[in-house]
Amino acid sequence: MKGHFAAFFEPSAVAVVGASATPGKPGHEVIRNIVANGYEGSLYLVNPKGGEILGIPVQPSIASLPPGIDLAVIILPAGDTPKALEECGKMGIRHAVLSAGGFAEVDEAGARVQQEIEKIVTKYCMRVLGPNTSGHTSTPHRFTSTFFPLGKIRRGKVSYIAQTGNFATHTMKHILTAEHFGVARVVGLGNKIDIDETDALQYLGEDPETHGIIMYLESIKRPRAFLKVARNVTRSKPVIALKSGSTEAGKHAAVAHTAAMAAEDRLVDGLFRQAGVVRIWEYSHLVSAGKALSMAPIPKGSRISFLAPSGAMLVSLADHCVRLGLQIPELDPKTVRRLQDISPPFIRMRNPVDIWAAASVKGVEFGYREGMEAVLGDPNVDAVVTILMLTEDTGIPSYDFLVDLARRYPGKPVLVSFSGDRRYNEECKAYLEPRGVATFPEIEQPFEALSILAKCRQFMSRAI
Amino acid sequence: MKGHFAAFFEPSAVAVVGASATPGKPGHEVIRNIVANGYEGSLYLVNPKGGEILGIPVQPSIASLPPGIDLAVIILPAGDTPKALEECGKMGIRHAVLSAGGFAEVDEAGARVQQEIEKIVTKYCMRVLGPNTSGHTSTPHRFTSTFFPLGKIRRGKVSYIAQTGNFATHTMKHILTAEHFGVARVVGLGNKIDIDETDALQYLGEDPETHGIIMYLESIKRPRAFLKVARNVTRSKPVIALKSGSTEAGKHAAVAHTAAMAAEDRLVDGLFRQAGVVRIWEYSHLVSAGKALSMAPIPKGSRISFLAPSGAMLVSLADHCVRLGLQIPELDPKTVRRLQDISPPFIRMRNPVDIWAAASVKGVEFGYREGMEAVLGDPNVDAVVTILMLTEDTGIPSYDFLVDLARRYPGKPVLVSFSGDRRYNEECKAYLEPRGVATFPEIEQPFEALSILAKCRQFMSRAI
Fold it and tell me: How close does chain A come to B323, measured CA to CA in Å?
């Protein structure tokens, strides 16, 4: 399988079939994306009109392509796709991305075209992604088949498998504009007539560029094979999944009939647990888990310490930790003494840490730095969350001490959220995240991210 | 009680005891806050040094104050507070805010000072807020006793009761800098030797400026009285509460001993349910519920419709609705026809609404406006959430149609979240919220806010 996937993720020669000179059309935007990402292999364009697009000569037909094409990106209306695929097969092109929609997801006529494609795939022993996929991305190879105008896609160490066009389009746009982490590979599965989540997971499990895998799935095509592959991958890499709805056709029914969904959900729960896949429940956690995996290490366990500038936050966040399955251990007596040393005596320092008085009296930077250093050095603590107090009233710290602490304790996640003036929250995020420290706007979010990471650890360290 | 509270929330003459000329000191910042909020009553300052502060003459002693002072704001160290309170009592001042910390929350010595204060309060028949309170605010009367530098506090229709200094300080700062809604009254309870959550709730229940009440509580001082008052208030006004931890002393134990907390929690749950108080669980929901109450009506029921630009979002958000107790009803056949009219036929329009194709083909503004209008007009729908697709690729709509729709359906909440380019998310929020339409950065948040509003309705419409 790896050999086949290399054609998708490390292609040396690619043909875009259905290349368009018209900005805004998918057949044009895909070329702009490939160019914007700095693809270094050979790029061929096919359109009967010929000519040039973005300075690249256009071949009039698939038959006029040179030999040795690894991958065809076919961006044609559904009805024209079988013929193009057949021509690719005849030319010895063994791998294709089928970007058009209008197949089984739409109507009976589309389903018949899809069956036609399946026959061609079998006939020529091809491997195809889609149809109805928004494409795939491979930042280490500077390549993408996405036709949504994303421009340069940031490189990172997390890979995504998404059974939805939305991820590779609007959600990627959101990640690129609102966040600072990047991706290694993104696979839009589409209607998965051939390549499915199990194939993609197997490839990413062996991919040295991929350090963690996040999936959005609406169905699991081959549950037994998935279980076998996932059990293996999750021993060495975190795998996180949002599984929503049930079958394509049953989505609406699933919504209407909660009981049915709950029953199917229990099966999915069991499958994921056996497979070592950490289940998440919210679409936006696809992004926050990606950020946490990208910037923080997987903690050794679920024992956390946190600092907040308010008793109310300490108590309500401690409640939240309990609900999330995180533990708040007693600190080592040495740590407690160290904390008490930086605080006025009227605050009893313990875990979680009330840093308000220390930060107010001794300065925000000093209080937080010393407090975080104390708990990061504690052998009972696997990870640290800090809720920074950022207002002009108490003084704005230099944010660099947080980068420094995260580097000096590389085995322990350091996650940051904020209290106070929003302007400085934004400024702090913009400073910390490009330097590898994850921040979250709502104070509960770093705890949710940590609980996901801690569950990854539980699965990775399970008995074989 | 109303009479007493008028002295706190509509004082005609206020004395700040412990006024300071030094910027940054609480005794100075409180004066700046009072001035910044445009307080129109008489303001007297007391400090043995005399002179002037911010152009206001300073009286050398409490005894030199004129008669008729409604409220004393005493900002002195704990040890100096009893003497000042006694002098206020002698002068006939019957209401005081005790801002200092250092009482029972700190140590035994502090507890003894607090007892001394309690005796003085009884002796002179006073009503006091605190000690250890960060103050209170009354925007309709342009008055605040908060000493945290907040400047002008936005007026709104939601009131807060908070048993934490953090709310009136950092959280208010966050609301003022990150949000667009305002507050009517804010009561920081502090150590509540006299005025407690039940007193405050009773006042706010009768307060015409208060349309909804949100509480952060760490303890309930008089559960029976609370139940009686809350049962009454919640018939006409939404009351929402975050109750965290257990007792002051038991907070840490509660964290360590989950079982104990769970037992206490069941009692709180039962009390709130009987009282008609909607319980929330996350600190950040104090803000998001405040926004929802400020900008949206209480829906008639929990039947919602939502529009999203992605099947994946539709399915995972529908799952989320089920978990939150929101219903996603079938739409009226007329509504379905109207939706189908704006969409290419390959999307089957129903609830929830897949608006991607309509918005892509007919324009984002047209697609969303027509789609929202259709579901807002449906008699089966009590509230609408829309996940706006905002990227340059599909075109940025004029945001005004959302304001227009919200105005034309005043009985149905219209809540907004975003997909796509973050820059436009921020721009849209900045346009909509000052015009009364609430937005939320994460796509799950409007549903969480709606589920809170729907629970408020359930309690408000319960049989008596």
Answer: 10
Instruction: Reply yes or no on whether the pLDDT at B249 is more than 70.
Output: no
Phi-psi region of A436 (alpha: psi -120 to 50; beta: other; left: phi over 0): left
Chosen for mutation from B33, B284, B320 (greatest number of chain A CBs closer than 10 Å) is B284
Q: Alpha-carbon torsion B277, B279, B284, B289, what sign?
A: negative
Structural domains counted in chain B: 2
Q: What CATH number does residue B360 fall under? A: 3.40.50.261
Residues B162 and B230 in one domain: yes
Q: Residue B94: pLDDT above 70?
A: yes
Residue where one domain finishes, among candidates A271, A293, A315 = A293
Same domain flag for B318 and B287 = no
Q: What does the pLDDT look like over B99-138, one tens digit per residue?
A: 988 888 888 899 999 999 999 999 999 999 999 999 999 9
Tokens of A371: 């407090």
Nearest-Cα residue of chain A relative to residue B423? A177
Residue B350: alpha-carbon gap to chain centroid: 35
- Between chains, do B173 and A315 touch, taking CB under 8 Å as contact? no
Whether pTM exceeds 0.80? yes
Higher confidence at residue B246 or residue B143? B143
Give dist(CA B388, CA B390) in Å, integer: 6
Instruction: Work out the mean pLDDT of chain A and round it to a whole number.
Output: 93
Of B293, B311, B337, which residue is a domain's last? B293
Cβ pairs bridging A and B (under 8 Å)? 185
Is residue A41 within 8 Å of A13, Cβ to Cβ? yes
Residue A272 shares a structural domain with residue A303: no
Sequence-distant (≥ 6) Cβ neighbours of residue A393 within 8 angstroms: B24, B148, B149
Measured distance CA(A231)–CA(A225) in Å, rounded: 10
Tokens encoding A295: 């910037």
In the predicted structure, residue B253 carries a pLDDT above the cut 70: no
Domain range for B419: 298-460
pLDDT in tens, B319-361: 899 889 999 999 999 999 999 999 998 888 999 999 999 999 9
Q: What is the predicted ipTM?
A: 0.91
Contact B320 A443 (CB under 8 A): no
Residues of B in contact with A421 (CB under 8 A): 173-174, 177
Same domain membership, residue A303 and residue A180: no
The answer to whether A182 and A210 have CB atoms below 8 angstroms apart is: no
User: Same domain, yes or no, for B268 and B193?
Assistant: yes
Minimum CA–CA partner of B247 in chain A: A315
Provide, as residue numbers in chain A, all residues whose Cβ is less than 8 Å from the Cβ of B163: 312
Give A335's contacts (C-beta < 8 A, 6+ positions apart). Answer: A374, A375, A377, A378
B44, B191: one domain: yes
Query: Is residue B260 within 8 Å of residue B251, measured between CB atoms?
Result: no
Residue B58 pLDDT greater than 70, yes or no: yes
Residue A337's pLDDT band (cuts 50, 70, 90): very high
E strands in B22-174: 42-46, 52-53, 56-59, 71-74, 95-98, 127-129, 136-138, 143-144, 155-162
